[in-house]
Design goal:
The complex is a heterodimer of chains A (173) and B (112). With 173 residues, chain A is mainly alpha-helical. Chain A has six helices and no strands. The chains are: A mainly alpha (173), B mainly alpha (112).
Chain lengths: 173, 112
């Protein structure tokens, strides 16, 4: 079964990384937004592989269904910029160097740290996660001893952000 | 199962791709897309660590319970990403209405 899992992981990695690269390198902004959907869909697949199906559903609903649609709306509302094939800015070599260096540092640290039996980077999960985890997530979000206060604060933050977005986008009449 | 290191390396690669978009793209909407990619990389990390490092189930009043810290944090990241996208795109629209541009370099009236 292991090769099947690696196969799925490889396909999803290609979706995530290839989609991400296409988002970054595409000169046409609208095509970038469409490639962003591919990348986010790959991330949803990774969530399924990590036995977090609820997060995968939320990823498809919120990210692909709402945020990308919002981005496409913004692209179309600023349409004079859409046809322009956009070159990267003058410091793109510096940006590329910074991104590559960051990745090399993280990857080297990871490979060195997972060499040998590091308890913080295990090869196998510590526990089996069953179908109960969705119920536990719901309980954790509203349990007084767990995350009910951050949950309410997040709702207030979202509310304030939405009101602010409406005020900002409405303009002055 | 695919080891934790593989997930972390994919997330690091996605994060750096998003970082390059933020540093190198000129259109403000493209920069916002880069930020979304970075937030997604963080979410992969959170869920991967949750899957691999959650300690064994604890007994509570309502039966056995799995720790849910990682997934809860990922949900908060979703909330912040939605708020960020809404406010960011509203700001971009407002700037476009006033300045007729969405190129980040041309919006520099705060520069000395």
């Amino acid at each position: 079964m292991n090769w099947l899992e690696w196969g799925f992981f490889g396909v999803l990695t290609i979706l995530v990384i290839g989609g991400g690269l296409a988002v970054v390198l595409n000169r046409n902004l609208f095509h970038s937004a469409l490639w962003l959907i591919v990348s986010l869909f790959g991330v949803a697949g990774l969530f399924v592989m990590l036995s977090a199906p609820f997060l995968a559903a939320v990823q498809v609903l919120v990210y692909i269904g709402a945020i990308v649609i919002l981005i496409i709306f913004a692209i179309m509302l600023t349409r004079r910029m859409m046809g322009i094939s956009e070159a990267p800015n003058s410091q793109w070599t510096l940006g590329l160097a910074a991104a590559a260096l960051t990745f090399l540092v993280i990857a080297m640290t990871l490979v060195l740290a997972s060499n040998g039996a590091n308890p913080l980077i295990p090869r196998e999960p510590l526990t089996q996660i069953g179908g109960e985890s969705l119920r536990d997530l719901g309980v954790a979000l509203v349990d007084l001893n767990q995350y009910v206060l951050p949950f309410l604060l997040a709702s207030v933050l979202l509310e304030a952000a939405m009101v602010g977005a409406i005020v900002l986008a409405r303009g002055e009449e | 199962m695919v080891p934790l290191t593989a997930y972390l390396i994919v997330a690091a690669l996605l994060f750096c791709i998003g970082m390059y978009a933020v540093l190198a793209r000129r259109n403000a909407i493209a920069i916002l897309m880069g930020v979304e990619l970075m937030l997604n990389a963080v979410n992969i990390n959170l869920v991967a660590f949750w899957r691999f490092l959650t300690p064994s189930t604890t007994a509570t009043g309502s039966g056995l319970q799995v720790g849910m810290a990682g997934q809860t944090f990922a949900i908060f990241v979703f909330v912040v990403a939605a708020a960020e996208a809404a406010v960011g795109l509203a700001l971009i629209l407002s700037v476009f209405r006033n300045r007729r541009t969405v190129i980040a370099e041309n919006v520099d009236s705060l520069k000395l």
